[in-house]
């Protein structure tokens, strides 16, 4: 018997509906970030690699390779001004010619000298206005790239007590976001990202999910929270946050990555794959609730990667990331929600935990291979990419490619 037939028998005997599992797995799309293809690193060093894209156009070409071998990465997030071009509709047509779309637009309000003490929360109104103008410029760019989403991350914060008025800055943050919100098309979304610290080390203006959630409530329905998995203090229960925000209809999407200590931006699924699995458990549990708000929220959520590939090869790092997400999603799809509910009803603590964990322990390789075969991509995307000559052909770009 082949490996998939065995898997099928094993799962069917547990009562798992493999048609649903397969169609959800087929539909999983993961957006990759343009900056993950460029040179990026830590605050100590950005190593220059040979073959790194020199332009936003070449970043898209690299992203197209990831989509080619996975079939799951059609859209690419861009960062302005890292991906600044004269003509954004040209960038969009380049993406389209490669079978891609431009995904979330990430405004950059943290690298300009003027923003040392804040951007939309700066005490000087001229600098606040400059930051707001950039946010608005990104809305114009989105119209040209046909993007619908904005990932908004602010480095704004202070390093010392008393450096700024926390309450005043809270007001300026809301006011700045309102200026942008007002000009959104009705089908556009603002995804507000929070982060506990770094680069600000005393207080960060949007430090946690509650602050991002509160802003989204004040702004309106087109504002939601973005959960970057690396942006929490150690020990935070990220899946609880995920579940809570979905239930409120305010979870807009994710920045996936892994961390050991803080915002390490390592390849997703390498450090704590169980956490990723449990995040998907909460998402699928909400989907199966059949409550309209929850189902709609989950269906519109964006799965995006946000990583910094400092020492690893960038395209393979991205392929590994996508495969790791697919693996944990596939495992979570094997949770028998009825079995969990039954155990919960009986107060069977260990039974409930077992019903969740055992899904994590199955080998989903035959399932993933079978899906890849069905959609017409290599069963082992990493192997296929490494066997191809794209990786060696880009070496001609030399060193000194795009960096953040
Ligand atoms: C920063 O820590 C955030 O994760 C942002 O999403 C940031 O814009 C992205 O990492 C690109 O630098
Ligand atoms: Zn992020
Ligand atoms: Zn981050």
Topology:
Layout: H1 3-13, H2 18-27, E1 32-33, H3 56-70, E2 75-80, H4 88-97, E3 101-107, H5 125-145, E4 149-152, E5 157-158, H6 166-182, E6 189-193, E7 203-204, H7 209-219, E8 223-228, H8 238-247, E9 251-256, H9 273-288, H10 292-300, E10 302-305, H11 314-332, H12 337-346, H13 349-361, H14 365-375, H15 381-387, H16 390-393
Parallel strand pairs: 1-2, 2-3, 4-6, 6-8, 8-9, 9-10
Antiparallel strand pairs: 5-7
Helix pairs in contact: 1-14, 3-11, 3-15, 5-6, 8-9, 9-10, 9-11, 11-15, 12-13
EC number: 5.3.1.-, 5.3.1.14
Domain Xylose isomerase-like TIM barrel: 86-265
Pfam family, one: AP_endonuc_2
Biggest β-sheet: strands ordered side by side in the sheet: 4-6-8-9-10
Measure the end-to-end span: 51 Å
Portion in beta strands: 5-15%
The appropriate CATH architecture is Alpha-Beta Barrel
The H/E string reads HHEHEHEHEEHEEHEHEHHEHHHHHH
> Mean pLDDT, as a whole number?
97
Tally of strands: 10
User: What is the class in the CATH system?
Assistant: Alpha Beta
Query: Strand count, sense and closure of the main sheet?
Result: 5 strands, parallel
Poorly predicted sequence stretches spanning 5 or more consecutive residues: none
Q: Say what the CATH topology is.
A: TIM Barrel
Bound molecules: D-allose, zinc ion
The shape is globular
Number of domains: 1
- C-alpha Rg, in Å? 21 Å
Structural class: alpha/beta
Helix coverage percent of residues? 40-55%
In summary, what is this structure?
The protein has 404 residues and is of the alpha/beta class.
């Amino acid at each position: 018997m082949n490996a998939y037939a065995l898997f099928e028998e094993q799962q069917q005997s547990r009562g798992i509906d493999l048609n649903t599992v397969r169609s959800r797995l087929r539909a999983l799309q993961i957006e990759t970030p343009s900056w993950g293809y460029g040179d990026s690193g830590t605050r100590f060093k950005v190593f220059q690699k040979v073959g790194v894209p020199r332009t936003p156009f070449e970043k898209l070409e690299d992203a197209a390779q990831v989509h080619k071998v996975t079939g799951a990465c059609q859209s690419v997030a861009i960062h302005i001004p890292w991906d600044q071009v004269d003509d954004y509709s040209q960038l969009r047509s380049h993406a389209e010619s490669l079978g891609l779309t431009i995904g979330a637009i990430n405004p950059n309000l943290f690298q300009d000298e003027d923003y040392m003490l804040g951007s939309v929360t700066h005490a000087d109104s001229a600098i606040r206005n400059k930051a707001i103008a950039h946010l608005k410029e990104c809305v114009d760019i989105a119209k040209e790239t046909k993007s619908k989403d904005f990932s908004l991350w602010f480095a704004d914060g202070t390093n010392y007590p008393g450096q700024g008025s926390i309450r005043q800055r809270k007001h300026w943050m809301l006011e700045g976001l309102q200026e942008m919100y007002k000009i959104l098309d009705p089908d556009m979304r603002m995804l507000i990202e929070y982060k506990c610290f770094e680069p600000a080390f005393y207080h960060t203006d949007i430090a946690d999910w509650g602050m991002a959630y509160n802003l989204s409530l004040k702004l309106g329905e087109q504002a939601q929270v973005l959960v970057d998995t690396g942006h929490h203090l150690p020990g935070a229960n990220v899946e609880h946050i995920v579940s809570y925000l979905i239930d409120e209809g305010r979870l807009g999407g994710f920045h996936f990555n892994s961390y050991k200590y803080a915002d390490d931006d390592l390849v997703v699924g390498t450090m704590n794959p169980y956490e990723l699995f449990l995040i998907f458990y909460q998402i699928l549990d909400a989907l199966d609730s059949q409550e309209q708000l929850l189902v709609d929220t989950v269906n519109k959520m964006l799965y995006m990667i946000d990583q910094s590939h400092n020492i690893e090869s960038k395209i393979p790092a991205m392929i590994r990331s996508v495969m790791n997400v697919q693996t944990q999603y596939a495992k979570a799809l094997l949770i028998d929600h009825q079995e969990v509910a039954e155990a919960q009803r009986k107060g069977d603590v260990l039974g409930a935990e077992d019903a969740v964990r055992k899904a994590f322990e199955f080998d989903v390789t035959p399932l993933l291979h079978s899906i890849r075969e069905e959609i017409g991509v290599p069963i082992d995307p990493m192997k296929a990419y490494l066997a191809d000559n794209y990786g060696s052909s880009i070496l001609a770009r030399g060193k000194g490619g795009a960096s953040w």
